[in-house]
Amino acid sequence: MVMIRAAHPRDTGALADLARTAYARYVERMGTEPAPMQADYASLVDAGQVWVAEHDGDLVGLLVLKLEHDHLLLDNVAVSPDAQGLGIGAQLLAFAEEQAREHCLAEVRLYTNEAMTENLAYYPRHGFIETHRGTDHGYRRVFFSKYL
């Protein structure tokens, strides 16, 4: 069973490790490290923006959510390669939607890198619609939205 909880400061090392392993396969494809590999998880945890997924006591997923005035930004979702295919990513997406509803927000937005082609098919399967593409913070990104 997977449990999703708010991240604690003691999780920051594990969060950074999980991001590095989850995104490692994209480094060669992108020619650089994806932004989540460089994130300051300690600051994000301190800001209350990070949730973790645990399976049998192991940290297997992470979620970074940012409340905006008119939507919830799903800034990062990652699942450990060893736990992929277990539905953890879908559970994290559903949790993000629950958080949006709890904050009376009717939209969840996210983005992914163009080189992460798997995600370009994954997010639409979960109800997200591509809204646009562009360069953001030096990355070629594809932006998605889901109205709840």
Structure characterization notes:
This is GNAT family N-acetyltransferase. Keywords: Acyltransferase, Transferase. Residues 2-148 form the N-acetyltransferase domain. InterPro entries: Acyl_CoA_acyltransferase (IPR016181), Bact_Acetyltransf (IPR050832), GNAT_dom (IPR000182). Pfam families: Acetyltransf_1 (PF00583). This protein is of the alpha+beta class and 148 residues long. It has a single domain (2-105), classed as 3-Layer(aba) Sandwich (Aminopeptidase), CATH 3.40.630. Helix content is 34%, strand content 36%. The chain has six helices and seven strands, in the order βααααβββαβαββ. The protein has helices at residues 12-23, 27-30, 35-38, 41-46, 88-102, 117-125; strands spanning 2-6, 50-55, 58-67, 72-79, 107-113, 129-136, 139-147. It has a seven-stranded mixed β-sheet with strand order 1-2-3-4-5-7-6. It is globular. The protein starts with a strand and ends with a strand. The model has no long low-confidence stretch (mean pLDDT 96).
Secondary structure layout:
Blueprint lengths: L1 E5 L5 H12 L3 H4 L4 H4 L2 H6 L3 E6 L2 E10 L4 E8 L8 H15 L4 E7 L3 H9 L3 E8 L2 E9 L1
Parallel strand pairs: 4-5
Antiparallel strand pairs: 1-2, 2-3, 3-4, 5-7, 6-7
Question: Could you write a compact summary of the structure shown?
Answer:
The protein is 34% helix and 36% strand. The chain has 148 residues and is α+β, with helices and mostly antiparallel strands. Strands 1-2-3-4-5-7-6 form a seven-stranded mixed sheet.
Quick tags:
Aminopeptidase; seven-stranded mixed beta sheet; 6 helices
